């Protein structure tokens, strides 16, 4: 009888070990699920911010861009006859990017009268203003004629608008749009 009880005890101990191993696996799965739930919550929050920022992109961008184009036409009316062309300068010494021979591109070089170097963005962020300003400084050292920097963007972060003013970059944007708060 004692041997049978010992055999049953060993079986119960084996079953207990299996239950303990299963319990450890379930706890690991619960930790993984908790981690995934936290990541999912962060992604949902980021997605909500993205949806809020984009809104109805086609409609908002189209209306804002149309207004900026009208403002640009008004800005340049009477300046002409104008010629606008894409401008690419070669950074032979690597001044701008730290790599020799890179291209420095401008969306438009408007000339025949006043001269403008133009950058076009769908949405201006502070980094865009800073990059454009760096490109302007590079262009000042490599172009013979003076020019005016002009950044065209239907929408912009408020900090980008402030930075453009500080750096002397004219920013044309939809006049009806209040610059967006940075997030």
From TrEMBL:
<dbReference type="InterPro" id="IPR024271">
    <property type="entry name" value="DUF3782"/>
</dbReference>
<feature type="coiled-coil region">
    <location>
        <begin position="12"/>
        <end position="53"/>
    </location>
</feature>
<dbReference type="Pfam" id="PF12644">
    <property type="entry name" value="DUF3782"/>
</dbReference>
<dbReference type="InterPro" id="IPR012431">
    <property type="entry name" value="PDDEXK_10"/>
</dbReference>
<protein>
    <recommendedName>
        <fullName>DUF3782 domain-containing protein</fullName>
    </recommendedName>
</protein>
<keyword id="KW-0175">Coiled coil</keyword>
<dbReference type="Pfam" id="PF07788">
    <property type="entry name" value="PDDEXK_10"/>
</dbReference>
<dbReference type="InterPro" id="IPR011335">
    <property type="entry name" value="Restrct_endonuc-II-like"/>
</dbReference>
């Amino acid at each position: 009888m004692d041997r049978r009880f010992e055999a049953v005890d060993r079986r119960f101990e084996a079953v207990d070990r299996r239950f303990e191993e299963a319990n450890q696996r379930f706890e690991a799965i619960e930790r993984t699920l908790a981690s995934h739930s936290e990541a999912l919550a962060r992604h949902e929050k980021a997605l909500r911010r993205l949806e809020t920022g984009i809104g109805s992109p086609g409609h908002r961008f189209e209306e804002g861009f149309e207004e900026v184009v009208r403002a640009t036409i008004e800005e340049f009316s009477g300046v002409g006859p104008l010629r606008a062309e894409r401008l690419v300068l070669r950074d032979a010494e690597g001044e701008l990017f730290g790599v020799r021979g890179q291209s420095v591109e401008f969306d438009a070089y408007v000339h025949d009268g006043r001269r403008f170097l133009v950058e076009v963005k769908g949405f201006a962020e502070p980094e865009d203003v800073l990059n454009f300003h760096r490109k302007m400084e590079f262009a000042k050292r490599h172009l013979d004629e003076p020019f005016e920097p002009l950044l065209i963007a239907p929408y912009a972060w408020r900090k980008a608008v402030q930075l453009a003013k500080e750096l002397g970059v004219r920013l044309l944007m939809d006049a009806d749009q209040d610059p967006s708060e940075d997030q």
